[in-house]
């Protein structure tokens, strides 16, 4: 019987346990703070969505002695697992949260779990503890995604946050709980049995639950490991462990965490922040459409829909974002066609573009009828390599073509701090009063100096009076 | 000259007036330069919708006498193993977790624990853990443990329903059978499912779906909500085989039960998910994500006719001792060797007599363990179960206690075992066999072979044997009057006007 090599999972258990605050570099601190801020903003905005409301109503069936906050709600508390669940759903509800390479939405699976957990701990963690745990959760996800080539492309089978997100949440929670190396191993093993949701639920109302569930079940795995539940201590080593989620699987040990200068993946590979609440691929096609529109406008003097004979989109092959006529907001966020046409019609794509009224506009539908998709061979389904091209063919004759290789917000062209904070402010102001908005910006901005991170929770509950009076969803 | 747009460039679907387009379903577009959008599938055409319709429209009169009989046996066995399972460490841990994390609920009962009630989701969880904690629960073909994923959820949900509107025994059985049937149908969508699993632990895949279906039925969800329940459940399904033979395995059933219930509750509140989750859509995996080969089939709604339940065609296997199903073949084979040896000798088998033990078994990594260290590992070890049966003539609940596991005689035998995987012994619960060949000191060999163990679906436990197993399990935690009443209540379950009589006996 072959001797089981525990090496890889064991190295992760050791790493999660041993990584400490002195190993956080300036680069990593800076990038992860941006991620935390952006995640809180999109999460707050997301608390006004239908899917969040359904999940909240459902979660209110449960009570517990431990109490954790629901973002953007001044007086609702939930058991920590369910707080992690609903806040995670809020983060992903509009597909507005960060994206990494290889592809996943790393922060939404981790931050809600950590904040919910932090509120239950007998002694409140410092901002630095929180930052460290957060980065452990991100790092573990990054490492796991590098175990397979499949992970580098736009997914087809399992939705990545449901695979690596729950593992990241377990790792981060285990870190914050101060679990032993062995317990950390088992947290990962238990979490693996909660991983894996099929891609078919992307572009539906259930997709946000993938992140919500990743957050809560990773937290749960850590809590179970804390009271002694055990799983397979070679879960990462085995094909029939985490390997079941991938067609090719080649795991490797976590780097030695005892070194002074630990090399975080986030340092080498930044995340992308979204300007539009839609699947990342949409950002390329929108930028290209806006540029093509501008070319047309410059040439002709004014832009007029009736000039357009046909629109050709050249995009990478990806089934679940090819939707010629979306009927729901979820489908619209996963439609090259819809996002291109909205950009052409309105000269912008914003949060408001995905409301039912907007989706149902006859002018938009008419334009959608003129769109066709092409998938050139050189356009690879990878967020690191893809491009989008938009060609507007006019009745007058000439065509106007523009191409986007790297949209603004992509890791190759990151949002400036000002624009990141602006995005947060706009999002958070829809729910929080000014004091809350500014408070969060202040706390996250200075998190490595914050002694007691419960202050963050207080700001996240500072809803505006308008919010109290007018609880209509904006979408 | 007026310019007419080449109509061949406009996808066919947009030539129809927009009103005719059904808004709910996404078109199945192809990745081609010349886009040719297929006609949108009519909802009733999809496999997913057919399942939703079936769940919603099945009625009690569709349950045949055979199905009623077999499913009642399953309910009884499942309760029994759940009751004894409520004494295990892993159950205790799961219960502690639920009580720590959540305030006491007063809704749903916990197997064998008088006075403890939890919220329905958590009760489904811990009772599911209990059911699978000792690997004592039923097994089907294609392989899964169907009842443990469904029964705890249906019980918990029944407890949740208002006192003046509890399901009747027949409603209860109908929901249970929907949960079993859906699992059976899903397992037939792939060839991979017919063999002993290697990737995903089947209860975590189909069990979650079965629980969602059963709960959708009990909640009387409409066809669309029922199909959403399945789709939501799919995003909660799937756990890797690596956690089998560990303490976490029972959580696969616990989670299947509770997450299926959760999916149904979310669907009842209007949460929507993929309307094509069971269908095979190239480039976007739904339920197909869990299988390498996947060919879904629609489910016919019974209408006024009867429905041929899979349970009628393919019976369940019940276990006689708490270990992985594969162990039952080698145990029976080893027991026959024991009988031969003891018949001629001094009444026990001594390691000193034994030179070599050869087991001819199918090839399956997770049940090949020469020296198991925990009870979970021992329940998944051909070697352990064969040697225990060689020594004792049988394998029982007691065989997995620390005392029994640490016996020097047992260790001596274990060190003499080797395995062979004959080509004609496939890793398939319908076709495998177990063979034990003992070589005695001195050269004689004694052989035993089991093709079909007693309890397998080809050689089902008699009603008497099933009740005996139930009593032996249930009496560990319940007084014997309750035990007997439970047997009666389940026997007459289809006649019960109110299933409270069942619910009140479980703790």
From TrEMBL, chain A:
Organism of derivation: Haplochromis burtoni (Burton's mouthbrooder)
This protein's name: Cis-aconitate decarboxylase
Keywords: Antimicrobial, Immunity, Inflammatory response, Innate immunity, Lyase, Mitochondrion
GO molecular function, one term: protein homodimerization activity
This protein's record includes keyword Mitochondrion: yes
Location (main, coarse): mitochondrion
Assembly behavior: Homodimer.
Compartment(s) where it occurs, according to its Swiss-Prot or TrEMBL record: Mitochondrion
TrEMBL record, chain B:
Subcellular localization(s) per the UniProt record: Mitochondrion
Enzyme class at the top of the EC tree: lyase
Cellular component, GO, one term: mitochondrion
MmgE/PrpD C-terminal domain segment(s): 321-495
Keywords carried by this UniProt record: Antimicrobial, Immunity, Inflammatory response, Innate immunity, Lyase, Mitochondrion
GO biological process: inflammatory response to wounding; innate immune response; positive regulation of antimicrobial humoral response; tolerance induction to lipopolysaccharide
Domain of life: Eukaryota
EC id: 4.1.1.6
Mitochondrion found in the keyword field: yes
InterPro entries, sorted: MmgE/PrpD_sf, MmgE/PrpD_sf_1, MmgE/PrpD_sf_2, MmgE_PrpD, MmgE_PrpD_C, MmgE_PrpD_N
Domain MmgE/PrpD N-terminal: from-to ranges: 51-286
GO molecular function list: aconitate decarboxylase activity; protein homodimerization activity
UniProt keyword Metal-binding, yes or no: no
Catalytic activity, reaction form: cis-aconitate + H(+) = itaconate + CO2
Its job: Cis-aconitate decarboxylase that catalyzes production of itaconate and is involved in the inhibition of the inflammatory response. Acts as a negative regulator of the Toll-like receptors (TLRs)-mediated inflammatory innate response by stimulating the tumor necrosis factor alpha-induced protein TNFAIP3 expression via reactive oxygen species (ROS) in LPS-tolerized macrophages.
Description of how the protein assembles with itself and partners: Homodimer.
Family in the record: Belongs to the PrpD family.
Designated name of the protein: Cis-aconitate decarboxylase
Native source organism of the sequence: Haplochromis burtoni
